[in-house]
């Protein structure tokens, strides 16, 4: 049996009703084969920028891999991943201390190749820290940047390990005086197709197969808007 395309969506901001609309829109059943796809030739139905939300600021990413490198991987790789991201600045005039090039409000994300395949993650920063003179985005972006670095260099396959190490590095660096965020990290294997997940707070991920949500991570919150 040939593997079929699964779409995995992680989000820090969407409501449960919106997640379903995003995940089930224009999803086609497609056989997965290891093949290099230039960013300009990505299928239209995989362009996150076509969604009705966050249209003022959107981008599509593909893992940078040359055709020669892709051919070498064909014998040992059975799965291909396409990672995309969309975000929306909270305020066009907002100034942040984090000096990041992407303004996603208090939120952050990453996507990176790993020794096993691909890791992706999102963090929803707690905006309440701004009332105390703290940039909420600094914590979430530092955590996600650390997670990206850990995942890209480590042989760890468990997403929990990636988050543990990323937070430990944040705490020991002394660069973040205060802050907090949710965290949702997924680590996928290109050879087995297996995925490990770590979800802390009310961020979430869903798995979609044949236009149906087959799994949605449970939300963790004390009450509305309090993860």
From TrEMBL:
InterPro entries: PPM-type-like_dom_sf, PPM-type_phosphatase-like_dom, PPTC7. SUPFAM superfamilies: PP2C-like. One of its GO terms (molecular function) is protein serine/threonine phosphatase activity. Residues 90-227 form the PPM-type phosphatase domain. It is an enzyme of class 3 (hydrolase). Keywords: Hydrolase, Magnesium, Manganese, Metal-binding, Protein phosphatase. It comes from the Eukaryota. Its EC number is 3.1.3.16. It catalyses: O-phospho-L-threonyl-[protein] + H2O = L-threonyl-[protein] + phosphate; O-phospho-L-seryl-[protein] + H2O = L-seryl-[protein] + phosphate. Coiled coil: none annotated. Belongs to the PP2C family. This is Protein phosphatase.
